[in-house]
Specification:
234 residues, alpha/beta, seven-stranded parallel sheet, binds NADP nicotinamide-adenine-dinucleotide phosphate
């Protein structure tokens, strides 16, 4: 087992399913203490049991649309493991409809989870990272942050926003020692992608493929910031 992330602590939002679960597993394999966050507590607890290393993993029931939940998540992580080295903003929702259909509550949820949730996450850990001159924010965006797909206009808009936040953050963080990485997956085999209207003859990626991109980004030497990783199926 690799130990590149020994004594490091990572928070993963949306850890109860798909890509987030895979990221949590890879971070644990790499030796990190991992804090799992999502709304479904039972799934998080089952994941802790599955991974096994109970002294190195905790779960915190978190709704990323609620700033007080996200602040509490960071607080619990610090109580359990000390400072936070990596924050993976992975929680996300994809609703599929035409703008004309006016699915306003779906738009609100996507904006709250995919954009505001990401900002709350950054806000909860960034001041302490800046003080320590060390830390890494990883945002899971999407290839929908580069190209708009019909029936996914609002989802794509939220992912363009995530990419804008990552890009702006990278500029703001120059010379601070804190890093920001945007990871843009193509289609990955998860419950989310099973609802996508986008049709492709390519075999979907495995969630572990994205988790490995996260590990690549967060294990670079301190002076290297991997800004953007796009991962699509062949
Ligand atoms: N799958 C793909 O093809 C693909 C491609 C590009 C990008 N992505 C992005 O990758 C990320 C993960 O997606 P996935 O495919 O793994 O989806 P998924 O299997 O549906 O998992 C989504 C995760 O987000 C969590 N979540 C949703 N709303 C939340 C909230 N309000 N608070 C906290 N957690 C919340 C869910 O947990 P709870 O329900 O327990 O809260 C779940 O753990 C998303 O940002 C997605 O946009 C996915």
């Amino acid at each position: 087992m690799s130990n590149e992330l020994n004594n490091k602590t990572a928070i993963v939002t949306g850890a109860s399913s798909g890509i987030g679960t895979a990221i949590a597993k890879e971070l644990t394999k790499a030796g990190a203490n991992v804090v799992l966050a999502a709304r479904n507590k039972e799934k998080l607890e089952n994941l802790v049991t599955e991974i096994g290393e109970k002294d190195k993993i905790i779960c915190v029931q978190t709704d990323v649309t609620k700033q007080q939940d996200v602040d509490f998540l960071a607080e619990r992580a610090r109580e359990a493991f000390g400072s936070i080295d990596v924050y993976v903003n992975n929680a996300g929702k994809m609703g599929s409809s035409r703008v004309l259909e006016g699915e306003v509550s779906d738009w609100d949820q996507m904006i709250d989870i995919n954009i505001k949730g990401v900002l709350y996450g950054i806000h909860s850990v960034l001041p302490a990272m800046l003080e320590r001159k060390s830390g890494h924010i990883v945002n899971i965006a999407s290839d929908s942050g580069f190209e708009v797909i019909e029936r996914l206009t609002v989802y794509c808009a939220t992912k363009f926003a995530v990419r804008a936040i990552s890009t702006g953050l990278e500029k703001e963080l120059a010379n601070t020692g804190v890093r920001a990485t945007n990871i843009s997956p193509g289609m990955v085999e998860t419950p989310l992608s099973s609802k996508s209207p986008f049709e492709s003859d390519r075999k979907k990626l495995d969630p572990a493929d994205i988790a490995k991109a996260v590990i690549y980004a967060v294990t670079q030497p301190d002076h290297v910031n991997v800004n953007e990783i796009t991962v699509r199926p062949v």
